[in-house]
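Hi C.,

You asked whether I'd gotten around to modeling the 415-residue construct. I have! Everything is below, sequence then structure, no commentary in between.
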Amino acid sequence: MASIFFEEREGRPREQRRTEHNRRLSEMVRAGYENASRVQQIFKSRSLTPSDVATLEDLERLPVISREQVAEYERQAPPFGGFARKDLTFERIFTSPGPIYEPHLTESSLWTAGYHAAGFTEGDVVLNTFSYHLVAAGLTFHEGLRACGATVVPSGTSNTEIQVQLLKDLGVTGFVGTPSFLKAIIAKAEEKGLDIAKDFYLRKASFVAEPLEPSLRTIFEERYGIDTYQMYGATEVGDIAFECAEKKGWHIVEDAVVEIVDPDTGRSMKEGTLGEVVVTRLNNIFFLFRFGTGDLSSIIEEQCPCGRTSLRLSGIHGRCGDAVKIRGLFIAPSQLNNIKKHFKNIKYQLVIDRKSFKDYLTVALEGPTIDDMIVKSFTDRFATECTVRIDEISIVSPGSIADSAPLIVDRRSWD
């Protein structure tokens, strides 16, 4: 099946794209070296000059920078860790857990290519269920949809009752959010005796921040007639890749340079080999080279039948670091260590499962005296540090959590 739309840039010869990427990378390196103190520090620590990183192959000379390292750099040199120009006034500044502060990349494609690929266009009324508060998701997705001509309903994280009302009253044709939230909205509609396929106009959905399980995709498409698409990105670097109508891998966006590397060495892996997704976003605002997402994927070089000539990711196949993503948000070791400082006499362990196609987080607590006050205090501190809701607290007997036990047990399966 051919894609509904793709920009002229997306269909150009790969060599032309590579030449442009080399040129833009060289310009970004020189601008970063001259205007961003952290970039200059990294280059000097490796005895590099800007001319040493002039092509995509030269990127391997630079270190992979993890999300944890970005947070640490920003603590050392707030607010942007020395990665941003000092002579600019930013349109917006977003934040994510850590905390990490990110200037809005105004020259990015703002997810437009992914929404075009999913068929969003003029005449569509789209429910955008991502938060518009502090984080980048709501506003950037909103602008990407508007660039496609769609009308956006900024419903954000309103409860499912309100979302169902909006779907019904506004004739909503599209959904943007997580698959688990769409499933919850459908469940609420059915609870009210409504039939999604017959009583609503919802016919397409684009998901990000959470995996779309194959079994749930089948339910959406075959039971409810909702055509589903996946997109992939990170707040530090913006949009990275998206599905087209062929649904045979995720196209890498035009402004992103994506490497698949060995997590231990930072060296590139050959085509088809699983490795860490490392991204350099080509821009002249935020000079973050080789951002390590911690996600595992591989490259598909075969050209897609849709007509786009970009390389594709084979999907996301898990995490390669200690950080985990729960309901679209990362939980990092540094955050858990901060919690430990406040509960020195308590052992705890996170257990992540999937229940009804949603992430389910249980925290086991072990200690000499754990009462309701301690449970509430722990829950509040966890929410403050990690911004992730605990679904269940389990108080376990002494000795249940061994000293050598992992802090996080991830029992999720994406089959």
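If it helps when you're writing up: The mean pLDDT is 92.

Thanks,
B.
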